[in-house]
């Protein structure tokens, strides 16, 4: 009987861990804790947890009293940044330990936004530096995005009622942010409090944006009023919507998907690096909670990237090199194409949405892509480095 877990648990000496089937490396990181049972997160129920000591979930499992009451669960970990699926007040009230994985896939979301912006600039025949981008929520994702965009020469405006300028750079009002060419949302989903984000972008705020502005949502579906967005897109044909997250996932609004310029199935954060980092962070938190030493590190499990290097000549224009490197690392249009083709043929939208996420192809963070640049092309080296690539002088 491991004393670290529960000194009152006399009969069954095995520690039981129930984990979502889609969290990578659980066996590697948690194998020493005890016996692991893998289950589909969407359909997890209280009876699955009748002897579970540790519960490890992703965003698709609602963790609240109806799931946990009358179970022996002592620690819950979610291998995600978002925590809106967790009733943390209930966990606190029952003395159940909790950890999420802050920032684990922030780099992947930034890669997603950069790929989307590369499509926008191409379709408008402009360069990155011609765009103004508004960021709503300057946390792990929003701040990294801000740094990348500014280093690429874009004008950035940002708003966040909970942050100080010393921490995250200049801040402005939401109204001001909505005046940008592109508005990118990076808040948690909050239904209450002083600054709720549920339907933060509603009919009135959509109308505040320029008729040909772009709204990009890769945080949580319900931060945008999806019905209002559909109505807006029908009467503002030049307005661009790029959605990774949807109200009522996995029940997708197909009409809205067709109105979007780019549509993906909640995969902005789905790099292998981001998912594995999520597991490492909840492993570290569980070790801390139970007073165990942290013995394992992610580095020992990450595989070699499939695409290792792209090379540029000194003659390539900086803008062209940037968009090529961004898309070599992650191409949003492939995910958009798969989503449209799968959803249009689908007999069961919920199942198809979840299947695309479960079977998502291997993708790596930008930092894994080495970019060869002639040593004399200093400006190109600087911009690529600032955008997050591993630049090699040649
Ligand atoms: N599509 C995907 O695959 C992914 C989505 N996400 C979502 O993105 C969200 C943001 O991620 P992080 O930046 O890592 O979270 P974070 O918690 O580091 O940052 C969120 C920021 O939003 C700010 N905020 C809260 N309410 C706000 C409001 N009313 N207006 C403006 N700002 C507000 C907070 O002060 C905080 O700085 C997560 O909560 C998660 O729901 C995260 C990762 C992947
Ligand atoms: O980390 C988050 O927050 C996310 O949105 C995840 O990337 C979502 O992944 P799942 O937990 O839904 O697989």
TrEMBL record:
E.C. numbers: 1.1.1.290
Residues engaged in binding NAD(+): 160, 187, 244, 269
PROSITE patterns registered for this protein in UniProt: D_2_HYDROXYACID_DH_1, D_2_HYDROXYACID_DH_3
Main location, first listed in the record: cytoplasm
Annotated residues for binding of substrate: 59, 80, 270
Pathway named in the protein's UniProt entry: Cofactor biosynthesis; pyridoxine 5'-phosphate biosynthesis; pyridoxine 5'-phosphate from D-erythrose 4-phosphate: step 2/5
Signal peptide positions (record): none
Catalysed reactions, semicolon-separated: 4-phospho-D-erythronate + NAD(+) = (R)-3-hydroxy-2-oxo-4-phosphooxybutanoate + NADH + H(+)
Enzyme class: oxidoreductase
CDD domains: ErythrP_dh
Domain (D-isomer specific 2-hydroxyacid dehydrogenase NAD-binding): residue spans on this chain: 124-268
Keyword Cytoplasm: yes
Active site: residue positions: 220, 249, 266
Function comment: Catalyzes the oxidation of erythronate-4-phosphate to 3-hydroxy-2-oxo-4-phosphonooxybutanoate.
Family: Belongs to the D-isomer specific 2-hydroxyacid dehydrogenase family. PdxB subfamily.
Record's subunit section: Homodimer.
NCBIfam families reported for this sequence: PRK00257.1
Name of the protein in question: Erythronate-4-phosphate dehydrogenase
The organism of origin for this protein: Thalassolituus maritimus
Gene from which this protein is expressed: pdxB
């Amino acid at each position: 009987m491991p004393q670290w877990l529960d000194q009152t648990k006399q009969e069954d000496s095995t520690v039981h861990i129930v984990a979502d089937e889609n969290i990578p490396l659980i066996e590697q990181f948690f194998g020493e804790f005890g016996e692991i049972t893998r289950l589909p997160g969407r359909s997890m129920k209280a009876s699955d947890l009748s002897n579970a000591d540790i519960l490890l979930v992703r965003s698709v499992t609602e963790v609240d009293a109806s799931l946990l009451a009358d179970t022996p669960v002592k620690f819950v970990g979610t291998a995600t940044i978002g925590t809106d699926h967790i009733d943390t007040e209930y966990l606190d009230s029952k003395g159940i330990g909790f950890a999420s994985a802050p920032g684990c896939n922030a780099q992947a979301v930034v890669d997603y936004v950069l790929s989307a912006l590369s499509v926008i600039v191409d379709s408008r025949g402009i360069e990155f530096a011609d765009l103004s981008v508004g960021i709503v929520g300057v946390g792990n994702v929003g701040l990294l995005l801000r740094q990348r965009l500014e280093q690429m020469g874009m004008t950035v405006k940002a708003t966040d009622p909970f942050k100080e300028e010393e921490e995250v750079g200049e801040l402005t009002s939401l109204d001001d942010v909505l005046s940008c060419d592109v508005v990118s949302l990076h808040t948690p989903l909050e239904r209450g409090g002083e600054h709720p984000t549920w339907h933060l972008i509603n009919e009135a705020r959509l109308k505040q944006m320029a008729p040909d502005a772009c709204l990009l949502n890769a945080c949580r579906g319900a931060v945008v009023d999806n019905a209002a967005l559909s109505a807006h897109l029908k009467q503002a044909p030049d307005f661009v919507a790029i959605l990774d997250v949807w109200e009522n996932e996995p029940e997708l609004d197909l009409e809205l998907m067709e109105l979007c310029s780019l549509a993906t199935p909640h995969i902005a954060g789905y790099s292998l690096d981001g998912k594995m980092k999520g597991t490492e962070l909840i492993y570290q938190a569980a070790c801390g909670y139970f007073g165990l030493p942290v013995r394992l590190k992610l580095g020992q499990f990450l595989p070699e990237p499939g695409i290792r290097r792209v090379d540029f000549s000194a003659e390539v224009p900086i803008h062209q090199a940037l968009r090529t490197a961004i898309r070599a690392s992650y191409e949003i249009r492939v995910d958009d194409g798969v989503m449209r083709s799968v959803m249009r043929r689908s007999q069961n939208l919920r199942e198809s949405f979840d299947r695309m996420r479960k079977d998502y192809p291997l993708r790596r963070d930008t930092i894994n892509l080495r970019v060869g640049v002639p040593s004399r092309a200093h400006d190109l080296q600087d911009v690529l480095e600032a955008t997050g690539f591993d630049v090699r002088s040649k």
